[in-house]
Amino acid sequence: MPTVRKRASAKRDLVEQYVYLAEHAGVETAERFLANAGESFSDLSRNPEMGAPLSWRSPELAGLRKWRVSGFENFLIFYQPRPDGVSIVRVLHAAQDWWTLLGIL
Question: What is the pTM of this model?
Answer without folding.
Answer: 0.91
